[in-house]
Amino acid sequence: MKLAARIFLAYLLISVICFSYPASQFFKDLRTFFLESVEDPLADHATLLAAMVGTQMETGRFNPQDLYKAFDHAYSRSLTARIYGFQKKRVDLRIYITDPSGKVIFDSLEPKNVGADYSRWRDVSLTLKGEYGTRTTRLDPKDPRTSILFVAAPIIIHGKNAGVVTVAKPTTNINAFVNSERPRILKLWYLAAASAIALSFVVSLWLTHPIKRLTRYANKIRDGKRPRLPPLGRTELRDMGLALEDMREALEGKKYVERYVQTLTHEIKSPLSAIKGAAELLDEQMPTEKRQLFLSNIRTEANRIQDLVDRMLKLSELEARKTLQNVEPVCLNGLLTAVLESKGPILSRKGLQIAFHVDEGASVPGDLFLLHQAVSNIVQNAIDFSPSGGTIAITATVAEGALVIVVDDEGPGIPEYCRDKIFNRFFSLQRPDTGKKSTGLGLNFVREVAILHGGGIQLDNLPDKGLRASLSLPI
To answer: By the number of CB atoms within 10 A of the CB, which of 64, 129, 293, 371 ranks highest?
Structure first.
């Protein structure tokens, strides 16, 4: 399982756990919340009624019949009260009053209960003891929706408990409120859960994006490229990236030195053997003409070694660079003209024609010296492999945000067996005219220049004959 999926599932699991338990508890306690909100005003009502009844009893003006008339009138009235989406149509409050012994002296809904002993009911018994008296009774013991809430208050006369006033209210309206609020609360919960899932997904992408950048960076290094360390923010991943960069440089440096010594030793071994053989022969007596031939061979091989060392030094200096140092707008027309002028003598000697086209005003930001060397190497390869009297076509065009320099020759092209190693250091093919090989560093140098400029070099055989070298540079 990928890291992003693990992070997403972990956040999702945490969200489910954190949301589900509070939500389930909230739905369980939702009815209790409504009951608590109803009990508070019932306690106020009971206390106010108990004070009013106590005042009337104290002055001898208490008459239950007056209360019956008032409540009958209230019960008979129709209400049109809309309370938060709930339509209240009648008064459903019940009042009963007991004496100090707990016997009923008034019941607003059940006058027949007058004289009944309520002293065993919790609301009455607790209130007569001076405590807060409440109870909840179900009309149907198996159905909590039939519950009635009773809240009592003491009737105090001359500091003594003279009875109890109980206010009762069925929970039917509360059930309606709960049923109406439950879908809205569920909708909010689903919305919160969906938001948590979406945020979990976004967070997983945000956390793994730098890791993907670091992975792409490592893959480019594996493919032999020289990418820049991607931006990783000020996190531990940036420290890891810097550590990888240091490790890459250390390993590449060690590997480069080993490869450098091995290849240089291998390439120098052949001309050194030729020099040594010619020098030994010079100790013998021979005609002047032959002696001059051996001396010429020594000079040729010495120059070959010198050229090899010079090119290796340039290439190693180029490979050590991480960024361009002297960046300036380079005019392609002037660059190609300068390269062709430097190749003028050899072009004339082989009778080669140049077909030259550059888009007007074409330019590219880069290092003029390095670009001159790279283009010069490409053109030199085209000259070396072109037949005498042939044509070399050079174009420079702008396409898809890049400047592409294309050099076509009429040579034999690249054999299939060596396509994968044509850019390897010291790899070279025999020139058709002389049968000799070059140092094998030219195309490797061109590739390093292209990479340093953020571009690339590509070699393709043309359909009929010849080779196309395409150097692309971002503009």
So the answer is: 371
**CATH fold of the domain at 3-180:** Beta-Lactamase (3.30.450)
* Closest listed residue to residue 457, CA positions, set 405, 386, 400: 405
**Own/partner pairs, 426-433, CB within 8 angstroms, 24+ separation:** 426/263, 426/266, 426/267, 429/385, 431/384, 431/385, 432/385, 432/387, 433/350, 433/384, 433/388
Residue 431's Cβ-count burial label (10 Å; 0-12, 13-18, 19+) is middle
Residues 184-233: tens digit of each pLDDT: 777 877 787 788 778 878 877 777 777 777 778 777 767 766 667 777 76
Residue 121 tokens, joined: 């009911």
Residue 42 burial (CB count, 10 A): 21
Write out the residue limits of the CATH 3.30.565.10 domain(s) in the chain: 328-474
Query: Cα(168)–Cα(249) distance, rounded to whole angstroms?
Result: 85
Overall average pLDDT of the 285-299 stretch = 79
Q: Which residue(s) pair with 356 in the sheet?
A: 394
Count other Cβ atoms within 10 Å, centred on residue 181. Answer: 15
CB atoms within 10 A of CB 343: 18
Residue 20, H or E segment: helix 3-59
Q: Pairing relation of β-strands 353-358 and 391-399? A: parallel
Which two structure tokens, joined as six digits, stand for 392? 């070399």
Residues 6+ apart with CB under 8 A from 427: 418, 421, 440
SS3 content of the chain, % helix, strand, coil (to 5): 55, 20, 25
What is the DSSP secondary structure assignment for residue 475, as one 8-state letter?
-
Pairwise CA distance, residues 213 & 475, whole Å? 24
Three-class SS state of 321: coil
Q: Give CB contacts under 8 A, 24+ apart, made by 133-139.
A: 133/164, 133/166, 134/39, 136/35
CA dihedral of 162, 166, 167, 168, whole degrees rounded to 10: -170
Residue ranges matching CATH 3.30.450.20 in the chain:
3-180
Inter-CA distances, 113 with 62, 104, 200, Å: 19, 7, 63
Name the class of domain 328-474: alpha beta
> Which tens digit of pLDDT belongs to each residue from 231-289?
776 777 677 777 767 766 665 555 555 555 555 565 566 667 767 777 777 777 778 78
